[in-house]
């Protein structure tokens, strides 16, 4: 199996990251790719820290998976929440679901709920690991295995960059890795509940993310390289 060879290589990369880039952390979004990485990190490099971002609007299925991860691997990942004052200020000015109204408002919501907490999670770290894959979206076709993240001033590793969706599912099924049950209901990419829908046969893997926007704007701001491919928008007033 191709994914078996790739998994062995990822294991070697993770060992090297744990050894040469400590303290390193894994940003676990609890998607399919990140469950593969969770399993591989716990096998090969358990010294790598693990965290997730709770935006306050995640699907219930995602919370259930958090508990499954703790039960399966015996570790509770760190959870980072958005600043309460920032969320309250945004909703008072723009409304609870303002992200539907414009791309700038949606990006501001993402900045408050995801980007700012990510910055806190990465503070004082030397490296972070993500589940980005080239196949996921047009904005991710240039994803490399490693790069320097100038936004956060640290190394960034994407060990699954060349994995296909078939590789990911092959690993998950072979090792009975827990995953979000929404994937069984045609949700290939998961985020906040109001910003994610199921996709139809033949649609892009990320068509269900921010489904009311055009494809070139569909990034949250957490990944600088991908944001460079997104058209510039006016700042939120």
Description:
- The chain has 237 residues and is of the alpha/beta class.
- A 6-stranded mixed sheet has the order 3-2-1-4-6-5.
- The chain is built from 7 helices and 6 strands.
- The relative contact order is 0.17.
- The chain has one domain (2-227): HUPs (Rossmann fold, 3-Layer(aba) Sandwich).
- The chain is globular.
- Helices cover 39% and strands 10% of the residues.
- One of its GO terms (cellular component) is cytoplasm.
What layout of secondary structure does this protein have?
Layout: H1 2-20, E1 24-27, H2 32-44, E2 49-53, H3 60-73, E3 78-80, H4 84-94, H5 103-122, E4 127-129, E5 146-149, E6 154-157, H6 165-175, H7 224-227
Parallel strand pairs: 1-2, 1-4, 2-3, 4-6
Antiparallel strand pairs: 5-6
Helix pairs in contact: 1-2, 1-6, 2-6, 4-5
Short description:
Catalyzes the formation of sulfite from adenosine 5'-phosphosulfate (APS) using thioredoxin as an electron donor. The protein is α/β, with parallel strands linked by helices and 237 residues long. It is built from 7 helices and 6 strands; from the N terminus they run αβαβαβααβββαα.
Shape: globular
Count of the separate structural domains:
1
CATH domain class: Alpha Beta
What is the chain-wise order of helices and strands? Answer: HEHEHEHHEEEHH
Characterize the main sheet.
6 strands, mixed
Helix content: 25-40%
Strand content: 5-15%
Rg (CA only): 17 Å
Low-confidence stretches: 226-237
- For the secondary structure, the number of strands is 6
- CATH homologous superfamily designation: HUPs
Strand order of the largest sheet: 3-2-1-4-6-5
**Number of H/I helices:** 7
CATH A-level architecture: 3-Layer(aba) Sandwich
Distance between the termini: 52 Å
Give the mean pLDDT. 90
Oligomer: single chain
Helix-and-strand structural type: alpha/beta
Protein name: Adenosine 5'-phosphosulfate reductase
Binding site for [4Fe-4S] cluster: 109-110, 192, 195
Subcellular location: Cytoplasm
Pfam families: PAPS_reduct
């Amino acid at each position: 199996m191709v994914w078996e060879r790739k998994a062995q290589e990822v294991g070697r990369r993770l060992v090297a990251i744990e050894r040469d880039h400590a303290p390193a952390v894994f940003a676990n979004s609890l998607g399919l790719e990140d469950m593969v990485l969770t399993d591989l990190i716990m096998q090969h490099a358990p010294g790598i820290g693990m965290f997730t971002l709770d935006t306050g609007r995640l699907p219930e299925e995602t919370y259930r998976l958090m508990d499954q991860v703790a039960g399966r691997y015996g570790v509770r990942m760190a959870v980072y929440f958005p600043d309460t004052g920032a969320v309250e200020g945004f909703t008072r000015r723009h409304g609870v679901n303002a992200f539907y109204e414009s791309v700038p408002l949606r990006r501001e919501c993402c900045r408050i709920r995801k980007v700012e907490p990510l910055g806190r999670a990465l503070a004082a770290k030397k490296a972070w690991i993500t589940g980005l894959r080239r196949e996921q979206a047009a904005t991710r076709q240039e994803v490399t295995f490693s790069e320097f993240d100038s936004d956060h001033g640290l190394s960034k590793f994407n060990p699954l960059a060349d994995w296909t969706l078939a590789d990911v599912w092959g690993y998950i099924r072979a090792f009975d890795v827990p995953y979000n049950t929404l994937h069984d209901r045609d949700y290939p990419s998961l985020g906040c509940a109001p910003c994610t829908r199921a996709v139809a046969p033949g649609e892009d893997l990320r068509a269900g993310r921010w489904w009311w926007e055009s494809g070139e704007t569909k990034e949250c701001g957490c990944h600088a390289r991908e944001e460079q491919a997104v058209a510039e928008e006016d700042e939120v007033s």
